[in-house]
Amino acid sequence: MGQFGRFIRELGKYRGAQLWIAFLTLISALLSLQTPGLIKQIFNFLDPRKSEPFHLPGPFSSLTGAFVLLILVSLASGLMSYVMGVTIQAMGQRFLLDTRVKLYTHLQGLSQGFFEKSQTGKIVATVVNDVGQVNGLITGAFVTIIQDSVTLIGVLILIFMQNAHLALLALSVYPIYILNYLLSRKGLSDNASKISELRGVILSDLQEKLAGIQVVKSYAQERSEVRSYTHLNRDNLNLNIRQNGLGTWLWVRAELITAVGTAVVLCVGGQAVIKGDLRQGDLVAFLVLVTAYLYAPTIRLIQLNDQLARSQTSLRRIFDLLDTAPVVVNNLKAPALPKIAGRVVYEHVKFAYEPEQYVLKGIDLTVEPGQMIAFVGGSGSGKTTMISLLSRHYDVVEGRITIDGHDLREIELYSLRQQIGVVLQESILFHATIRENLKYGKLDATDEELAAAVEAANLTSVIEALPQGYDTKIGEEGVKLSVGEKQRLAIARALLADPRILVLDEATSSLDSETETLIQEALDRLMTNRTSFVIAHRLSTIVKADKIVVMELGEIKEMGTHSELLEQGGIYARLYAEQFRAELEAGA
Ligand SMILES: Nc1ncnc2c1ncn2[C@@H]1O[C@H](COP(=O)(O)OP(=O)(O)OP(=O)(O)O)[C@@H](O)[C@H]1O
User: In what way does this protein cross or attach to the membrane (predicted)?
Assistant: First the structure.
């Protein structure tokens, strides 16, 4: 029930709408409860044995008047329900908007590590499906709960006022209702949480396999993917059938209990009518009250159990996501990093992704402004981790990293990242126009700035050749750019951002020499006058680096310029010889 409690608190901000809904519910319930009273008066008036006059205001105290009043009451109650429906739908839509924005804002604030460990599809399922499910709770279940609870309270008072004996009889079936409910509750909620979990799995699997369709196709796994997708969906179907079966079975039993209750009231009440202790109209009105206003809302409330069970899992996932704290905490009160020169110092830096499993084991490294550092080393030696720490995607476990003397943890995070540009191995571009992709580096870039960046990135002729130039869409409905063109576009984007520090993860994939030259030229222009950290794969980059850092198992083993390290004849000399030979062979 904890989740529902928190949910109700979350809804607190819509208090105005809630009060309005509560007021309308009350009026609507009071109006609809007038119907049985009117029916009673009509029947008692029509009683052939002893017609009783109407106790209604002047113009309505006739048969026609009573009918008109009946219609007016229904109309007014319908109108109230309409206004209430609209108000609740609006509140539901507000909730959808607010919760999705809240979740998305929270997601944007989470650290990179969270996304490395989570399946995107599951996150999408929560933001889209789970929030939608909870919206259903507001617009569906909550209306029922409020409306029917008010009706139940009103009807209880009315039936006891009319006939306490019959009222007690009508209520005698309630222990059986409760038992019936308790019997089904666990099954329904267990099954609902399985459905909800499975839905997340199906969505994340779909997203993952479509994103990785190249792998699926190149391993010819299409049929096995279709099989496993069908399998998951069949499980989903079975669980849903079971859920509906459980829900319907609960409802059928509740209907049966209702029938018993109605029969008992009719039987005992009927005898009272025969004996003359009760008027026919009183019995009919009592029966309408009991069946339509007592039993029917009770059954509706019982049926809600299914929806509540389904929503519980959704709420848990929404709250779990909202409760996930970022690993790297951005102190918004910390001072912004002033415009930097770009001096970076790693002081005795130790870092572990998992407790005690150090992947950086005491790094000391000083980089002067404008220098180019090349990280070299075997796979898993810690190169990527070094640059992740610089952008503060993770915090160091021991030691510290400073930029121009500022400890990274003591400055505002965004002001840090704004001054670090990143060009990754695989350039990530969005499904938008070339202009929009470029402007991601600098939102207010002028056309001249765009053109200069594009020129420096050797892209001018490529863009000019496109039908709509800068306004050409990339991806799905637009052009497909080659790997080299994408990379140059990413370089132009970084040029526009004009960061003082540059992080570059060079592409390992071999590009043809012409493309390689174009990219290299663009990169050289990008790196000019910036402190650059390069995870180097190309000999040309390594050779001209101001400092080559050779890493092995999380430690710096060698450091120096190309010629210094060759002279040492250590790890670097060996790596270089290997790579040089490999490049010669590849070129041959
Ligand atoms: N997100 C992560 N969670 C846990 N361990 C990680 C994570 N990222 C990297 N590691 C581990 O940290 C170690 C260093 O990885 P890192 O990616 O820094 O190496 P690298 O030198 O960049 O390797 P490569 O050249 O293959 O990219 C490896 O043992 C790797 O398995």
Answer: Multi-pass membrane protein
| The ligand 1 atom nearest the CA atom of 379 | 26
**Does the CB atom of residue 383 touch ligand 1 within 6 A?**
yes
2-323: CATH topology is ABC transporter transmembrane region fold (1.20.1560)
Q: Ligand 1: which of 384, 390, 508 to mutate, judged by most atoms within 8 Å of the beta carbon?
A: 384
Which of 359, 391, 395, 533 should be mutated for ligand 1, with most atoms under 8 A from CB? 359
Model pTM greater than 0.90? no
Residue 227: other Cβ atoms inside 10 A? 11
Q: Which CATH number fits domain 344-587: 3.40.50.300, 3.30.70.2750, 3.40.50.720, 3.40.30.10?
A: 3.40.50.300
Domain residue ranges of the chain, discontinuous segments joined by +? 2-323, 344-587
The low-confidence residues of the chain, meaning pLDDT below 70, are 1, 476-478, 507-513, 583-584, 586-588
376 lines ligand 1 (CB under 6 A): no
What is residue 584's predicted lDDT score, i.e. its pLDDT?
A: 65
Among candidate residues 400, 344, 381, the one with its CA nearest the CA of residue 532: 344
Q: Crossing angle of helices 447-456/483-497, nearest 10°?
A: 130
Query: Atom 28 of ligand 1 has which residue's CA nearest to it?
Result: 380
What count of Cα atoms within 13 Å lies in the side-chain half-sphere of residue 347? 11
